[in-house]
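Workshop exercise sheet. Pairs work together: one partner reads the sequence aloud, the other fills in the structure field after running the prediction. Swap roles for the next sheet.
Pair: D.N. / O.F.
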Amino acid sequence: MLRSSSGALDHVFRVFVPLLVASLLNGCSSLGYYGQLASGQWQLLRAREPVTEVIANPATDPGLRQHLQRSQQARAFASEVLKLPDNRSYRVYADIGRPYVVWNVFATPEFSLEPRTHCFPIAGCVAYRGYYSQSGARGAAALQKLDGQDVYIGGVEAYSTLGWFDDPILNSMVNWGDERLATVIFHELAHQRVYVKDDTAFNESFATFVEQEGTRQWRAARGLPVQPAEAGKQRDQFVALVLACRERLKALYAQPLDAPAMRAAKQAEFERLRTEYRQLRDGEWGGVGRFDAWINGPMNNAKLLPFGLYDQWVPAFAGLFAESGGDWQRFYRRVEEVGSLPVQERQRLLNRIAGKPAPTGF
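Structure field:
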C-alpha cells in the first residue's frame, strides 16, 4: 500500500494504493482520470531498468550502487526464506524524477468519517483516488471541497501492482535506510502473495505482519540484535491519539446538533488532539516533535482516514503464523483460507485468534 509525505508517518500511509492500474479495466466512467492513470503507469514502466545494469554502469552514483546492492540481498531473502513471489519486482529500478510516485486524494462528508470510496474490478473498493501528478490531485481535491467534502492529499513513495507488472525500486525510495527499504520490499511482495478484494484492513495487516516478522528474521540472519521494544513506540502512541480522536468524532456526528454547533464541536475535538499530542511530546518524549508538521497542519475528517488500517489484525496474523509452526508456506495457505470466508465470519475468526471479543452487531 503507500508512503507518506512525512517519513515519520510512512507506516500509516505506505502502499495504501495496491493496483492503481487495475482501474484501467473498469468501464471508463471518467476518461480523463483513467487516461492519466494509463499515462502515468506507462511512464513508470518505460523508466525501469534491471538493477544489475544500474549497478554495473560506471556512471551510477556510488551511493546508489551500494544501496541497490544491499536491496538485492533483501530481495533474495524475501523469496528464498520468506517464500514471497520470485519474480522481477524490486529487481528493476526507475528514476521518475519526482519525490512521490502518486498522490492520493481522500474525501469524507463534513460530518462523517465514512470515506468516499471508489471501486475497481480487481483492486476492489478503496477509500481514495490516486493521481500521478500533484496538480491533478489538487484539482480533484478542489472540486470535492466545492462540493462540501473534507479532503486530504497524501503523497505516496511506493505502491504495488499485485504482480501485474514488475514493480520497481523507485528513486523516491533510495534515500531510505537499507532496512526500511527491505521492509517495504517484504510488505509489497506480501500483497502479491495474498490479496483479498474489498478488505483493506485485512490486506494491510497481513502485509504488515509479514513485514515485521520478515524484518525480525532478516536481522537475525545477518547477526543483528532484535529491535528494542521501544522502536516504533512514539508512532504507536501518536496513532493511538488519532484513533481516540476519531472515535470521539464518530460519537459527535451521531448527535442531533445543527451544523454550526456540530462544526464548532468538531474543531474543538481537533484542538483537543493537538493539545494531547503536545503534552505527550513535551512530557514523555522530551520535546521530540516527530509529528509536529502533521499535527499543526489543517485538520479534517479525511486526514484521519488512513490511521489504524495497518495494525488492526496484526495480532491475529501472528497467531496464524504460530499455529502454522512458523512455516511460511503453511501460513500463506491458512491466510488464503481465512481470506476466502465471508467478511463477517472472517472477522469473527480473526478476533478469536487475536483473543479479542467479536464486534457487536454480527
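Discussion prompt: The chain has three domains: 7-221, 233-304, 316-354. What would you look at next?
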